[in-house]
Design goal:
single chain; mainly alpha
Length: about 1100
C-alpha cells in the first residue's frame, strides 16, 4: 500500500471513488488484492490533521453536492472506537501532566472532522451515534466516555437549533450504555481543563431539554438523570444572575458557555464575561485617540493578557463561534466609528488564536479575508488595517493557500490607494506581501497562481520591483523543486505572469542568478533582456544635482525642483552626499521627502543602491569606506530616512555582475555588522523572547519592553522637530507584534540565497550566519527554508560540506533552547555537527545509519512517536509524518557525501537491509524510501536509474537462469517475498514504482526519456522486455491523467523494444501476455492516436506477432501470410 503524500496534497492523490469504476470496466485481470476497498488508507488520511480536502478529493466529494458517503461514516466511527480503546489502555491518568486531557489531540481532531463531514452532509449524525452505540455495546470501554461526549457536544450545540430534536435523541441510548452509575457523579475539579469533558454529557442534556421546550409537540419524557443531578445543580447555581462572573484561572465560565450556548437568556452573561476579559473598558469608554509620533508599541491600550489556548480548547465550537463573532463585530464597529481608537492587545492575540480552529473557517479565516479586511479598508481605519496585517504576518498558521493568494492580490490593489502612501503602512503592506510570496510552498505555486492567469495583474505588483523579483525567485524555486522548469517557454503555464512582471517592472538578472534558474525562466530573461544602466551616468547626474542644490537659494524653488514628478529619483543619493560632506541634513530636505512620499521613495532607493555600489567599487578604501558606511547607518538609525530591511532587500535584489556583485554583498555585511545598532537589537530580541507565542500570556509586556529600549520611528528625525502634530503621512500606527528584527527575517532569507550564488562571498555569509543566524529562532518555516535552500542550491553546495553544515547549524541550532533534543536531527548527525572541520568531512555513514533514518519515518507514519509532542496547529508542518520526511531530507542533503552515494544507500535499505525489516512491514519501508527519493533533488535519482539499468542488464535476465520459474513469478513481489525467492527484480520494481508514484508530475516526466535513451538500447531478451513492461505498465494510468503525451512515448518504446527482441530471439514464449498489454494500452489509453508509427513496426515483426497484433495495425490475414 502506498501511503499518499498528505503533507504535499499533490494532485497524484489516489482517487478511491474510481476503484469501483475500474472493477466494472473489464480491465486486465488484476490481482484481487488490488481491487479490495482501500479503507485502511482512507482511515490513515482521516487521522491526519488538515486532511479534509484530501479526503474529499479521494472520495470525489464536493461541497455543493450533498452526498452521503457510507464508507466515510464507517471510518469516522472506526476512529472513535479506536480512540475509546486507546483511552482504555492509556497507562497515564485520564489527565495529562499539565491538566490537559490525555489523547488531547486525538479527540480535538475527531471533533473537528465530525463537525466538517456532518455539516456538509457527507455523513449522518444519528447513524454515526447509533453505529458507535452498537460497536460499544457489550464492551467495557468506559474511560473515554467523557471525551466521546465532548466530541458529540461539539456538534450538538452547534446544530441543534437548526435541526429536529429526533436527530439527536440517539445520544441518550449512548448515555444509558456508558453511564450505568446509580449514584450522582461528583462535580469535577473545575480548575482543570478536564472538567469540560467530564461535564459534557450534562451539557448535552441541557441542550436537548432546551430544544424540547422550544420545539412544539416534542418531549424527551425524561428528566435529567439522577446520575447527573449534582452536575446540573452546580451549573444551575452558577448561571443565576446573582452569581458574580469573572474570568479567573478556572474553567467555570467555559462550562457555562458550553452548557447554555443555545439558551440566549443564560448564555449572554458568561459570554460577556469572556469578552470583557479581552476588551476591558473599551466597550463603553472612549479612549484617547492615537497620538502621532510617539513610541508605536505604547499606542495600544486595554487588557494585554489573551485567553489561553487551554481556555479556548475547552470551549465548544458553538461558543468559540460566538466569541469570534463578538470580536469581529467589535473590530468592525470600531473601524466604522472613525474614532481612531487602538484595539486591546488581548483582543488581537485572542482573535489570532481563534483563527487556528479549522471548524470555524467561515467565521474565521474566510471572514477575516473576505469580510473584515475589506470593511476596515473601506472605513479607512489604517491603524486597524495595520494591526490585521501584522497579525497575518506573525500570528497565523496553516492558512490555506487560496486565502494567502487572495490576500496578496488585495495587498497589490491596496498599495495603489493614495491613503496607503503612509510610511509605516506602506512598509507593512510591502513586508506582508513579501512574506506571502516567499512563503508559498513549492507545490502550491502553480495550482494557486494559475487560477489568476486570465488576470495576472492581480498577482503582480504595479510598481514594486522587489516584490516582483521575489515572485520570480519563488517561481524559480517552485519549478526546481517540482521539476517543472524544463518545458518549452511557449508551453509554460506562467508566461503571461512573467510578461506582466516585465511590463510593470522591467528588470534583468545577473548571470550567476540565471545559472541557478530552471531552463524555462533563464530562457525568458535572456530573451527579454533590459538595457543596463550606466552607473558612471548615475554618478554624473548626482554630482550635477548636488551642484543645483548648492546653487539654489529660494526654498520654494528647491522644493519644486527636487519633488516635481519626472525628476530623476536621486534624492537619497543627494542626502547621503550631504551627510557625508556636512554631517547634517538641511531642514528643506525633510519637506522634499514628505512631498516625494513613501511609495515614490522606492525608486530613489533603487538608484541609491546602484550609486552606492559604484561609489564603493571605485573607492580608495580604508577610512573613506568606513565614512561611507557610517553615513548610510546615520540615514537608517539617526535620521530614520530608510529602514534597514528595505535598504538591504533592495541592495540584495539589484542586478550586479562580477566585482560589483561582490562589492554589493560587502556593503550588506558592513551595514548589518559594522554598526552595533542592528546587532544589539537582534541579540536583545532573541534573548528576551520566545517564538512560541501561543504558550505565552505576557507577549505584550516583552514587546513593550523591546520597543521602549529600541523605539522605532517611521518619520525622519527632522520632521519630528519641525512639526508639532506631524503630517498625516507620518502618523504613527500601533504596533502589536512586529519589529525590525522580525521584518528582517524574510529579507535575510533572500540575502542568504543571493550570497550562495557567488562563491567568493561565502566567507562573508558565514560571518553573517554567525552573528545573525540566531534570528532563525523566529522563522515560521525553518525546516522548509533549509529544505528549499539545500534543494535549490544543491549544485552550488555539493562540494561545500562545511557550508551545508553551517547552514543547518545556524537555522536549526537557533531553536536549541526551545525545542527538545532530537526534535529534528538524528543523534549521528548531531555528533557530526560537533566534530572539527577536517575530521567532520571524512564522515561516511554506513548502511545502519540510513536504516535508522528510514525506520524513524516508517514508525512515525505508523503512529509510534519519535519526536517530542507538539501542538501541530502552530507547527510549520501539519502532522508528524510530514515533519519526519522533511527533517530527514534536510539531513540527507546536508551530509558530507555525494548524492549518488546517499541514494544508493537508501535503495540498499530495502535491497540489502530487508533482512532486518519485519516481513509484514516491507511495503511501508519501500513506501518511505520512495517518499524520500521523490523529495530529494533530481541528481539523487541517477542512482535509481543506474540500479534499474544494472538489474535489467543482469546475466539472469539476458539468458533466463530460473528454469523452474516464469519471469511473471520472479517479478511478482508477493511470490518472491513470501516464498523467500531471489528478490532483486521484484524489490527493484517496487522501489521504482514507489519513487514514481510519489514524484511530482514534473519529476516523473523524466522517466520516458530514461526508458528510451538508457533502458531500450540494452533490451535483447524476452525476459528483459517483460521486466520493462512491469516497469512501465503501472505508470500509464497516472501519465494518462497528467501527461497524456508520455503514454504515447512509452507505448512507442514498448513496440520498438518488442521489435529488437523479435529480431534477436529465435523463439518467443510469452507473446500472448505481451500482446495483451499492447491491446490494453490501445483500448484504455491511446486508441488510434499512434496508428501510423505502430503499423510500420508491426509489419516488420514475425508472422506470429503480426497475427496477434493485426487488429491494432489493421492488417488482413492474407497480407501476413504473403509478407
Amino acid at each position: 500500500m502506498l501511503i499518499a503524500r498528505l503533507f504535499h496534497c499533490q494532485p497524484n492523490t489516489k482517487d478511491l471513488s474510481r476503484q469501483q469504476e475500474l472493477a466494472s470496466l473489464g480491465n486486465l485481470p488484476y490481482d484481487p488484492d488490488l481491487l479490495k476497498p482501500q479503507t485502511e488508507l482512507l482511515r490513515y488520511v482521516l487521522e491526519q490533521p488538515y486532511s479534509r480536502d484530501m479526503v474529499c478529493s479521494m472520495l470525489g466529494l464536493q461541497k455543493q453536492h450533498k452526498q452521503r458517503c457510507i464508507v466515510l461514516e464507517e471510518q469516522l466511527v472506526e476512529l472513535v472506537i479506536l480512540a475509546m480503546e486507546r483511552s482504555e489502555n492509556e497507562s497515564l491518568p485520564a489527565e495529562g501532566m499539565d491538566g490537559t486531557v490525555a489523547n488531547h489531540w486525538v479527540w480535538l481532531h475527531l471533533s473537528s472532522q465530525l463537525i466538517y463531514f456532518i455539516l456538509f452532509q457527507f455523513a449522518c449524525f444519528p447513524s454515526i451515534v447509533m453505529a458507535i452505540h452498537d460497536k460499544l455495546a457489550g464492551r467495557e470501554l468506559r474511560k473515554g466516555r467523557d471525551h466521546l461526549m465532548w466530541v458529540l457536544l461539539q456538534f450538538i450545540s452547534g446544530s441543534i437549533q437548526r435541526n429536529p430534536l429526533s436527530n439527536f435523541l440517539p445520544v441518550l441510548k449512548l448515555y444509558d450504555l456508558l453511564y450505568p452509575e446509580k449514584e450522582p457523579l461528583p462535580v469535577p475539579d473545575y480548575t482543570q481543563a478536564l472538567c469540560t469533558h467530564q461535564m459534557a454529557i450534562t451539557c448535552i442534556w441541557i441542550h436537548l431539554l432546551k430544544k424540547a421546550q422550544n420545539e412544539p409537540g416534542t418531549n424527551i419524557h425524561r428528566p435529567i438523570p439522577h446520575t447527573l443531578k449534582v452536575h446540573h445543580e452546580f451549573l444551575q447555581h452558577l448561571v443565576m444572575p446573582n452569581a458574580s462572573l469573572c474570568m479567573g484561572s478556572d474553567y467555570r465560565i467555559a462550562l457555562l458557555c458550553n452548557a447554555y450556548s443555545t439558551n440566549q437568556e443564560y448564555f449572554s452573561r458568561p459570554m460577556a464575561a469572556l469578552v470583557d476579559t479581552i476588551l476591558g473598558t473599551q466597550k463603553n469608554q472612549q479612549q484617547q485617540p492615537l497620538q502621532t509620533l510617539q513610541n508605536n508599541a505604547a499606542l495600544a491600550n486595554g487588557p494585554t493578557t489573551p485567553l489561553s489556548m487551554s481556555i479556548l480548547d475547552s470551549l465548544t465550537v458553538h461558543s468559540k463561534m460566538s466569541l469570534i463573532h463578538s470580536i469581529v463585530t467589535h473590530v468592525i464597529k470600531l473601524a466604522q466609528s472613525k474614532s481612531n481608537m487602538a484595539l486591546a492587545p488581548a483582543l488581537v492575540e485572542t482573535y489570532s488564536r481563534l483563527l487556528v480552529y479549522t471548524e470555524i473557517e467561515s467565521l474565521g479565516i474566510k471572514g477575516f479575508i473576505s469580510q473584515l479586511l475589506p470593511t476596515v479598508f473601506k472605513s479607512h481605519a489604517w491603524g486597524t488595517l495595520y494591526t490585521l496585517l501584522e497579525m497575518f504576518s506573525y500570528r497565523m498558521h496553516h492558512i490555506q493557500p487560496h486565502y494567502r493568494v487572495q490576500l496578496l492580490s488585495h495587498l497589490h490593489s491596496l498599495a495603489a490607494v493614495p491613503q496607503t502612501n503612509q510610511t509605516q503602512l506602506h512598509l507593512c503592506v510591502e513586508s506582508t506581501a513579501l512574506r506571502l510570496i516567499t512563503g508559498l510552498g513549492s507545490a502550491e505555486v502553480q495550482p494557486q497562481l494559475s487560477r489568476f492567469l486570465s488576470e495576472p495583474k492581480t498577482l503582480v505588483s504595479a510598481e514594486s520591483e522587489e516584490l516582483n523579483r521575489a515572485l520570480v525567485l519563488t517561481l524559480a524555486r517552485s519549478m526546481h523543486v517540482t521539476g517543472t522548469g524544463a518545458e518549452s517557454l511557449s508551453g509554460t503555464w506562467c508566461k503571461e505572469l512573467l510578461n506582466t512582471i516585465m511590463q510593470n517592472t522591467p528588470h534583468s538578472w545577473a548571470n550567476h542568478t540565471l545559472q541557478c534558474f530552471p531552463p524555462v525562466l533563464s530562457e525568458f530573461f535572456q530573451q527579454n533582456s533590459v538595457a543596463k544602466e550606466n552607473k558612471q551616468q548615475i554618478k554624473k547626474a548626482v554630482e550635477e544635482e548636488y551642484r543645483n542644490w548648492a546653487s539654489m537659494n529660494n526654498e520654494n524653488d528647491i522644493i519644486a525642483h527636487f519633488s516635481v514628478p519626472g525628476t530623476p529619483p536621486l534624492f537619497l543619493c543627494l542626502l547621503w552626499k550631504m551627510i557625508l560632506e556636512t554631517d547634517r541634513i538641511s531642514p528643506i530636505a525633510y519637506k522634499i521627502l514628505e512631498r516625494i512620499g513613501a511609495r515614490a521613495l522606492s525608486a530613489h532607493l533603487r538608484k541609491f543602491c546602484d550609486y552606492l555600489v559604484f561609489e564603493f567599487a571605485n573607492s580608495v578604501g580604508g577610512q573613506h569606506v568606513n565614512k561611507c558606511v557610517d553615513t548610510i547607518n546615520d540615514m537608517i538609525w539617526k535620521y530614520n530616512i530608510v529602514t534597514i530591511d528595505r535598504l538591504v532587500l533592495c541592495l540584495a535584489l539589484r542586478t550586479q555582475e562580477g566585482n560589483e556583485a561582490q562589492v554589493c554583498f560587502f556593503i550588506i555585511q558592513l551595514l548589518l555588522l559594522k554598526a552595533a545598532e542592528f546587532r544589539n537589537r537582534v541579540q536583545e530580541f532573541v534573548k528576551e523572547n520566545s517564538p512560541e507565542h501561543w504558550k505565552q500570556s505576557n507577549w505584550h509586556e516583552k514587546h513593550l519592553a523591546f520597543h521602549r529600549k529600541f523605539p522605532e520611528k517611521f518619520a525622519p528625525e527632522g520632521i519630528m522637530e519641525q512639526t508639532s502634530g506631524g503630517p498625516s503621512q507620518y502618523q504613527s500606527l500601533p504596533v502589536y507584534f512586529g519589529n525590525v528584527c522580525l521584518r528582517f527575517l524574510p529579507v535575510f532569507d533572500i540575502v542568504v540565497h543571493r550570497y550562495l550564488e557567488i562563491p567568493p562571498v561565502i566567507k562573508s555569509l558565514e560571518i553573517l550566519l554567525e552573528h545573525l543566524g540566531c534570528l532563525y529562532k523566529f522563522h515560521d518555516r525553518p525546516v522548509t527554508y533549509l529544505y528549499n535552500t539545500l534543494h535549490y542550491y544543491e549544485k552550488k553546495l555539493r562540494d561545500r560540506p562545511l557550508l551545508k553544515r553551517r547552514l543547518v547549524s545556524a537555522v536549526l541550532g537557533s531553536l536549541r533552547e526551545i525545542r527538545a533534543p532530537g526534535w529534528a536531527l538524528s543523534e549521528a548527525y548531531q555528533i557530526y555537527m560537533t566534530r572539527f572541520n577536517d575530521d567532520a568531512i571524512s564522515w561516511v555513514p554506513e548502511l545502519e545509519y540510513y536504516i535508522r533514518l528510514v525506520q524513524r519515518i516508517v514508525e512515525t507514519m505508523s503512529g509510534t512517536a519519535h519526536f517530542p509532542a507538539t501542538d501541530w496547529r502552530f507547527n510549520e508542518f501539519p502532522n508528524p509524518a510530514a515533519h519526519a520526511l522533511y527533517v530527514t531530507c534536510v539531513e540527507l542533503m546536508a551530509l558530507p557525501v555525494a548524492p549518488d552515494v546517499v541514494a544508493n544507500f537508501l535503495l540498499d535499505v530495502v535491497a540489502k537491509g530487508y533482512t532486518v525489516v519485519p516481513s509484514d512491514d516491507i511495503h511501508l519501508w519501500i513506501n518511505c524510501v520512495g517518499l524520500l527519493l521523490a523529495a530529494l533533488p533530481e541528481c539523487y535519482w541517477s542512482a535509481l536509474h543506474k540500479r534499474l539499468l544494472e538489474t535489467i542488464s543482469s546475466p539472469g535476465l539476458i539468458n533466463w537462469q530460473y528454469n523452474n520459474l516464469t519471469p511473471f513469478q520472479m517479478f511478482n513481489f508477493n511470490i518472491t517475498h513470501n516464498s523467500l525467492l531471489e528478490n532483486k527484480y521484484s524489490y527493484m520494481l517496487a522501489l521504482a514504482h514507489s519513487v514514481w508514484h510519489h514524484a511530482g508530475v514534473g519529476q516523473i516526466t523524466t522517466m520516458p526519456q530514461f526508458i528510451k535513451e538508457k533502458l531500450q538500447p540494452v533490451i535483447t531478451s524476452e525476459e528483459q522486455l517483460i521486466y520493462a513492461c512491469h516497469l512501465i505498465g503501472p505508470t500509464l494510468a497516472r501519465f494518462n491523467a497528467e501527461r497524456p503525451h508520455c503514454v504515447v512515448e512509452l507505448a512507442v518504446c514498448l513496440y520498438e523494444m518488442l521489435e529488437r527482441v523479435d529480431h534477436a530471439q529465435t523463439t518467443l514464449n510469452y507473446m500472448d501476455p505481451i500482446c495483451d498489454l499492447l491491446y490494453h494500452i490501445k483500448y484504455m489509453f491511446v486508441g488510434d492516436m499512434m496508428k501510423n508509427e505502430v503499423e510500420c513496426i508491426i509489419r516488420r515483426l514475425r508472422p506470429a506477432l503480426q497475427m496477434r497484433l493485426r487488429f491494432i495495425a489493421h492488417i488482413n490475414i492474407e497480407e501476413i501470410h504473403t509478407s
